[in-house]
Amino acid sequence: MGILIQEKSSTWIISPTGVEISRCVLDYSVTLETNENSDSSCTIIRIESDFTIIRDSQSRTVEIENVGSVGQAAVFLRKELTSGYVSTDGKLELRFSDNVSLIVDSNNSYEAWSVLTKDGERLICMPGGEVAYWSPERKKP
């Protein structure tokens, strides 16, 4: 179980295996956490910009600064993350079980989203849409 991040022709592929959203935290952002194994490590997906939820071909915009709106993110709880993709302009697309998708466009002023895997890989949409990647720190033997 886990998430693998791969670069492919200036885009990024997010490949999950057996990953379910187990926690949804709402504050000045939306944070989705996974339940990848029995220890306390998990993948964290943080959304800091308006986003779109698509369910059964119907789309809804979620305004990150609207408390009544962000509650819609609860739709991802207990859903399996099935695939993910990041385009060259920084748009994040995540697909979940039950025909539910999440789309976050880049933002010109601040980081729109970030993904931190349990293994330490970090993928962040920087202001303006540039995507930054950090590989996990390797411990020296």
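(the above was protein one; protein two follows)
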Amino acid sequence: MIQAVLEATSDPAVVFTREANVIDANAAAAAALEAESVEEMRGSAFEAFTVPEDKNSLEVGKKLLLDGERGEFIWAVAGKKGGWRRLKSRVLPLPRGPAEVGASMIIAQQISGFNNGELLASIVGSAHDAIVACELDGTIVGWNPAAERLFGFTSAEAVGKNVVDLIIPPQCRDQALETIGRVARGEGPFYFDAQRQKEDGTLRDVSVSAFGVRDQAGRLVGIAAILHDVTESRRAERKQAFLAAIVESSQTALIGITADRKIASWNRAAESAYGYSAEEIVGQPFNLLVPEGEPDASKVIARVLRGEAPGLHEAKRRCKDGRIALVSVTESPIRDKAGNIFALASSERSILEETRLRQELQQAHAYARAQVESSIDAMVTIDQNLVILDVNEQMARLTGVPKAMLIGSRFDRCFTEPERAAAGVRTAIKRAL
């Protein structure tokens, strides 16, 4: 009769004696309890399939079996392979057979829970971050596919090795040993940034979460670490810091401008040139710097945002104190990773001083030229190859050759004895050097 009842239900069903030992079960029960077979289950006690900490199962479920009463309870099942399930279970006393042996059947339906072993293996195996499990001394016992990708060691190569010897670079070993020791003493979890070493010796920046692993009894049995690769983000941060340092130390005013013509960045040279601090100017319209009567800067900005290059040009800027600065400007587009232009940088250098120096140089040159031309002596400038570079009008009158023809010709050919002239010039040059 018991066998017939078991075969009549597709739900997990187990028949127990009045002492709560298994008499028989169906295949569904064997699968739910992770038993190899029904035969393996026979003779096992109710507690063998129950989570020890679950008082409801032990106090309510087992009592119904011992008393031979009908009832329901939630059975927290502990599978043979480490999984667990919560089963809504009905206890049904069975009629006594010819041998007068009292028995009850539990018919169960799963309401929640998972196979822990399978679930955790699935999570660890599909995780994007490297997950490494170790014994308390650091010996690796678990190494997921993400760890293989990050470090280059296969699971077979990593398991059994000490984690410190395998992936910890020399400069990080003291910290790693200290962390392992503290976790093994029950401290943690710990969260920190570090460097770890790949199979080929290259270093990766990682964000580490290290914590202890405990069994169902609460005993500390191992150490687990989750390592998130942050190498690229750290590299980007360092690059950004490097560029920021260059921008801040530049003697040229560097201004970042958004697509809506707002000032987004402002370096120290811009502060010195125009008088506004970064706190005052960032977020303000760029046209705040454009004097009245000057062309709107929006057209130039629009050209740069379209990918055009206006090239080096001059512009006027209105300073905080009202001064008008004449500047040399170059605009460059700023692109995102996809190559789209989303902002621009304006490099601006004052040319008032340059203009003043240029004018002074031109005046000095004009004065010197006037002195040369007014001399009563013939004057000529030549290079080491005796080629005439410049002459005054007196030289042209003396030789009877126009200045345009003299310049670029050989100086020694102006004489009836060119060899003596050439030797004399070379001697003079040699003495001068």
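Reviewer note on protein two: The chain has four domains: 2-115, 127-233, 253-354, 375-432.
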